[in-house]
Known about the structure:
The chain has 102 residues and is an all-alpha fold.
Amino acid sequence: MTIGFVQKSMLVLVVVLCTVCVTADVAQACPMCQAAVESEADNNVPKAYMYSILFMLMGPAALFIGFSYGIYKLSKRENAQLEAAAHLMQPVADAVPAEGSA
């Protein structure tokens, strides 16, 4: 990765986070959910519904994060093995004489 790519990625991340923070109070629940939350303060059903939605969203996120981490670890392991193999092959290549030099 180049430094320019990292800087552009960080800039995009900052812009997205600022946009989310600015528009957070503009976003509201659907009218029926909002009315249910406002009408009955003692009723826990709307809160339970919100938490169930969060739990349902965590499943795919956890799978994505798990697979991404697994792929990352596999690629790091493969790169380490390739570097070790290249390191082992380097002295052998230097020890073989050229065809016309013997």
